[in-house]
Write a structure and sequence with these properties.
seven-stranded mixed sheet
């Protein structure tokens, strides 16, 4: 919704009362706010300490994002909490009055999370639209006693919370926000997204800015206090192609990865599979990264040995040298490193990218293979890697006059992975 719905809870926006520039300025003292522009997943959250999820709008509201949470999104949030991340979920009321559609959050989709936690949100309540209500803060030590300006928000249904959760914001016996431990992390939910916006953060007579200044540090994971020593790893792969009845058939393509998940997408067919998943692993987990991160930290350019991807196996293919462009940027906790590079292989045999080259001979004469490698890593203040995500993408072109499109068989494959820190027990 940040693209289609300008001004509504947008980081950096100084023009609209619902922008978040004031909050971002306060967070910048100890944190860095980045916009997540891809679906929630263990890979997309690999380098996050906190997830600020801002009012998933009801899709009937004009300008709202067409994207709605799925069970997989909820799985990703709970997995992030389980390993120790902090989540602040800001929702609004859900009241189907024509003049307040803009306040409606997507109750059906957010309830996918609330149901897993045993929470019920009131679909028929909205706080006063005539005045800002003075909610009182509570919960963890250090959060009590703030007067938080609450404007047109919702509440917990029945003012009851399941075991493990406690009120965070209350007003006249109603629970406007709650918090609790989930896994090794902490979740906080508040029912008025506007209380973090430019318009209310600094409103005279209320303590919204001071309250949030206390809340964010309490949500921070323990790995932010020093070097991480436990990690989660996930590696996964994919293969795509455009089969033809005369050369590389759909059956032949599927047989390259018979155990993979199959998906049809117009001309192309896609196969997806998980390669490896480890939780609560030690430093040996870093051996899974295809390159040595420490060797890149002080370089602008570096040549590293990589392997062509095999289309029919996770075993490494033939070795190839790849030149990387490296950029390192200092952050609050150390440094962010980004490396990327591409290499082209000419007239390679199918054996360079296949364990069973005979199965691919029907696809034609392999003429070019292009490989791109991307790495994003977070280094702590001592230069040790704390989190990393990498992607290897490969596209192979084989000349075949019988191929359905352009006289070429085109095969795309990738091998990706992410390592994320886990909070100490």
């Amino acid at each position: 919704g940040y693209v289609a719905n300008h001004g509504r809870y947008t980081p950096g926006d100084v023009y609209h009362p619902n922008g978040l520039a004031m909050l971002e300025a306060d967070l910048a003292v100890e944190h860095e706010l980045r916009l997540l522009n891809e679906p929630l997943s263990p890979a997309s959250l690999f380098d996050a300490d906190l997830l600020l999820a801002v009012n998933p709008d009801y899709p009937l509201y004009e300008g709202a994002s067409p994207y709605r949470w799925t069970p997989e999104d909820v799985d990703a949030i709970l997995a992030f909490l389980d390993r120790g991340g902090g989540v602040l979920l800001m929702v609004n009321s859900f009241l189907s009055r024509p003049d307040f559609w803009e306040e409606n959050f997507d109750l059906e989709r957010v309830s996918l999370l609330f149901d897993r936690l045993g929470i019920r949100w009131d679909p028929n309540y909205m706080s006063s639209d005539d005045r800002i209500e003075p909610a009182r803060s509570g919960g963890d030590p250090g959060l009590e006693g703030f007067t938080v300006g609450y404007g047109q928000g919702g509440r917990v249904l029945g003012d009851r919370l399941p075991s493990g959760f406690e009120p965070l914001l209350t007003y006249q016996g109603m629970i406007y926000g709650f918090t609790g431990k989930v896994g090794s992390g902490r979740l906080a939910v508040m029912g008025d997204t506007g209380l973090i916006s430019n318009g209310l953060l600094c409103f005279p007579g209320f303590d919204n800015a001071a309250f949030l200044g206390r809340l964010f540090p309490l949500l921070c994971p323990t790995w932010g206090d020093g070097a991480a020593d436990r990690w989660d790893l996930r590696r996964y792969g994919h293969l795509s192609g455009c089969p033809s009845t005369q050369s590389l058939t759909e059956e032949a393509l599927r047989n390259l990865r018979p155990q993979a998940t199959w998906m049809v997408d117009h001309h192309y067919r896609h196969l997806y599979w998980d390669q490896e998943e480890r939780k609560d692993a030690g430093a040996e987990v870093w051996q899974a990264v295809p390159v040595e991160i420490a060797a890149l930290a002080d370089a602008n350019r570096a040549t590293v040995p990589l392997r062509w991807l095999r289309l029919d196996s996770d075993d490494p293919g033939a070795e190839v040298d790849l030149e990387l462009s490296v950029r390192t940027r200092q952050s609050h906790q150390g440094a962010d490193l980004h490396a990327i590079g591409r290499v082209c292989g000419q007239d390679l045999p199918w054996a360079a990218v296949s364990r069973n080259p005979e199965a691919l001979a029907v696809a034609g004469q392999l003429e070019q293979v292009h490989l791109v490698f991307q790495l994003d890593a977070v280094l702590d203040q001592d230069g040790r890697p704390r989190a990393a995500r990498w992607r290897i993408g490969q596209i192979a072109y084989a000349r075949d006059a019988r191929a359905a499109h352009y006289g070429w068989t085109i095969l795309l494959s990738s091998a990706s992975g992410a390592i994320a820190p886990r909070a100490s027990a």
